[in-house]
Amino acid sequence: MNAEKTKQALVLFAHGARAASWAAPFERLRELVAARTPDVDVSLAFLELMEPRLPERAAQLVAQGVTQLTVVPVFLGQGGHVLRDLPLMVDELRLAHPGLSVRVAEAAGENAAVLQAIGDYCIGALASQ
């Protein structure tokens, strides 16, 4: 049996900002994740103000043969962008790329382990005074 290997990609989805320096922590996060997942294309995409935007990045990935896309919203909470804008974008992706399986993870700040790590950091800030 000759099964075709599924090509996966992970997109860290952030808001975007006018200042290019704003993206630096997201790029460091991308590098950390990519180092731990060498067989997965890990990239950034933005809602607005920065490039690439999610639809353009997804199109690039599909052109590279990606068939499974996981989108991780790197947002602290489930505001309007995560609750309304992102689902609309994902619906458009699914229409534009019917062969692409798209999964959206919970917003990073909604995850218990992420909240624990941020809490640990905050408590550590007390000790450094």
Automatic annotation (TrEMBL):
Tell me yes or no: is Metal-binding among this UniProt entry's keywords. yes
Q: Which PANTHER family does the protein's record reference?
A: FERROCHELATASE CHE1, SIROHYDROCHLORIN FERROCHELATASE, CHLOROPLASTIC
Q: Name one GO molecular function term.
A: lyase activity
Any single Pfam family the record assigns to this protein: CbiX
Query: Which named protein is this?
Result: Cobalamin biosynthesis protein CbiX
Which Gene3D superfamilies does the annotation name? 3.40.50.1400
* Database matches in SUPFAM superfamilies: Chelatase
- Cite the entry's keywords alphabetically: Lyase, Metal-binding
Fetch the InterPro entries from UniProt: CbiX-like, Sirohydro_Cobaltochel/CbiX
